[in-house]
């Protein structure tokens, strides 16, 4: 079973693109605080890349902004690519569902 669930805050505004076949894809990063502090008393966080497809991508781009809190349910996916002859690895969350936990600032602006 490959199931991931997390709640975090959007680090920067989501980016929406479309594939060559016209499918929407939205990418954003969420910060999730760790439940403990380091020796200096500072909070630690993990930054996770989230990818959404189709209608979910359109809605995330429409309603989420930097600082918004959201819950994400999805699966972990890894992929590789080559850049300048060096193999790069990416681990990301492919979202099945995104629950908006903050009031939409974008909707309020309209």
Describe the model.
The structure is a single chain. The protein is 14% helix and 60% strand. The chain has 110 residues and is mainly beta. It has a 5-stranded mixed β-barrel. Strand 5 and strand 6 form a beta hairpin. The radius of gyration is 15 Å and the shape is globular. 17% of the residues are buried.
N-to-C span: 41 Å
Strand content: over 45%
| Poorly predicted residue ranges | none
The neighbouring-strand order within the major sheet is 1-3-4-6-5
Task: Describe how the helices and strands are arranged.
Blueprint: E1 4-10, E2 15-18, E3 24-37, E4 43-53, H1 54-63, E5 69-83, E6 86-100, H2 105-109
Kindly summarize this structure in a few lines:
This protein is mainly beta. The protein contains 2 helices and 6 strands; from the N terminus they run ββββαββα.
